[in-house]
Write a structure and sequence with these properties.
Blueprint: H1 2-7, H2 12-32, H3 34-41, H4 47-68, H5 74-96, E1 108-110, E2 117-119, H6 120-138, H7 146-164, H8 169-185, H9 190-213, H10 222-233, H11 239-254, H12 278-311, H13 315-339, H14 358-420, H15 422-432
Antiparallel strand pairs: 1-2
Helix pairs in contact: 2-4, 2-12, 4-14, 5-6, 5-7, 6-7, 6-8, 6-13, 7-8, 8-13, 11-12, 12-13, 13-14, 14-15
EC number: 2.4.99.28
Region (Disordered): 409-433
GO molecular function: lipid-linked peptidoglycan transporter activity; peptidoglycan glycosyltransferase activity
């Protein structure tokens, strides 16, 4: 075990926070899966769901380990090649996507021969943000013109978002927000960001108008998230209101100290209690203290991402940490905000805590890349320390050699003096005697 821990490179604090969140996730997932167990096979036995979550977490940590071994600068080329592949996957999802876990839109594809469902938009977010970081780092020392950036930066961004938008507004909005944040951090001209925001809002409005005018063009996709926004801004009762009400009841029932692990009542009524609304179950079982504790863990992880970005020795490394780390924390805040009705229902999971395979694995890929950046900084620091040690050792050896040569020269001069003047030898013998 000690050898395994020693083999982990990179920021140990990030490793620790990730491990703590993953370990904590077993308790709420085990408890909140009871309704799925009753619906699935009518026994209420959640052991199978716990083992499934354990498998997802173990595979996730293997992904972090494998990815953090890859030098992070390799992801420059991977993002450029991977973006067209992501577009193909997103296009296939729009046409042949499947619906799982009671979702209202086809956001998943099934991997052939394995049977694992995979949400392509999560992979698209990672590849796109790496692509944006690559562009900004490449253009850091050269002036950026809006005309050139339209084709090199914003066209790939809008194409990716356009593929995701019909089925998943929340993810496309999250990706667009994070791209804007990354361009701001990467010192992209602020006036150009303003133009892009304006174009994005106009394009979204036009898209909604077209979708409402031709509802059959996007069956069972656009109408879902449009109705969610409409219902959130009005008092119309719907299924989302039912989920929100149950989530608020769970939070209110928790009080300061909670009902205790496994004693949640609303988990039996919330359809997405182990994924989208797991934070409500956490507060119900562990109280306000548990809810604040989980929030604090994400904030500490966010602070550690800031430290890692500051320590990164390249612009690309800094932007990678910001582009992949900040969305993770922002997604967690969105999930918590939905549970307390600050935002409409989005379908965003709580990273590393909610159940689910592809969402956990994509988070682990992002964490592996971030840790790879911190690993490189450690390697540079170790090389610097090792170089200083070698220089110090070499200097000590040179000093010892010089001291020996000086001693030999003194002895030689002493012998020469005795041979030239016999009286010196007699005097030296008398002094020794």
């Amino acid at each position: 075990m000690k050898e395994l821990i020693n083999s982990l490179k990179g920021d140990k604090v990030i490793w620790s926070f990730v491990a703590l969140l993953a370990l904590f996730s077993f308790m709420p997932v085990f408890s909140a899966s009871s309704n799925l167990a009753y619906i699935g096979h009518g026994t209420g036995n959640t052991l199978g769901y716990l083992l499934k979550h354990l498998a997802h977490i173990c595979i996730g940590f293997l992904i972090i380990y494998w990815v953090h071994k890859v030098p992070y600068h390799y992801f420059r080329a991977i993002s450029k090649v991977g973006l067209p592949i992501v577009w193909i996957l997103l296009g296939y999802t729009m046409v042949k996507g499947t619906v799982i876990a009671g979702a209202n839109a086809s956001r998943w594809i099934q991997v052939p021969f394995i049977g694992i469902t995979f949400q392509t938009s999560t992979l698209a977010a990672i590849v796109l943000l790496i692509f944006v970081a690559r562009y900004l780092s490449k253009k850091r020392d050269t002036p950026i013109t809006f005309k050139s950036s339209i084709w090199e930066l914003w066209l790939p961004v809008f194409v990716t978002i356009l593929f995701i938008l019909p089925a998943n507004f929340s993810t496309s909005a999250l990706i667009f927000s994070m791209v804007l944040m990354l361009t701001f951090v990467g010192k992209y001209p602020l006036k150009y960001i303003g133009i892009v925001v304006g174009v994005g809002l106009v394009s979204l409005t036009f898209f909604i108008v077209v979708a409402k005018a031709f509802p059959d063009a996007f069956p069972n996709r656009v109408d879902t998230w449009i109705s969610r926004i409409d219902n959130f801004t009005s008092d119309k009762p719907d299924e989302d209101d039912y989920q929100i009400e149950k989530a608020k009841i769970a939070i209110a029932s928790g009080g300061a100290y909670g009902l205790g692990p496994g004693k949640s009542i609303q988990k039996n009524f919330l359809p997405q209690s182990s994924s989208d609304f797991i934070y409500a179950i956490i507060v119900e079982e562990y109280g306000l203290i548990g809810g604040i504790g989980v929030l604090g863990m994400y904030l500490l992880l966010f602070f550690r991402f800031i430290v890692a970005a500051h320590k990164a020795n390249t612009v690309f490394g800094k932007l990678l940490v910001v582009g992949l780390g900040f969305p993770m924390i922002f997604q967690a805040m969105v999930n918590m905000a939905v549970a307390v009705e600050l935002l409409p229902v989005t379908g965003q999971t709580l990273p590393l805590i909610s159940s689910g395979g592809s969402s956990i694995w994509m988070t682990c890929i992002a964490l592996g890349i971030i840790i790879s950046v911190t690993k490189k900084d450690e390697e540079i620091l170790e090389e610097k320390v090792e170089k200083e040690k070698r220089e110090e050792t070499l200097k000590r050896m040179i000093d010892e050699q010089i001291a020996k040569e000086n001693a030999m020269e003194d002895e030689t001069f002493s012998i020469q003096d005795e041979s030239e003047n016999p009286m010196n030898a007699v005097l030296n013998k008398k002094q020794k005697a």
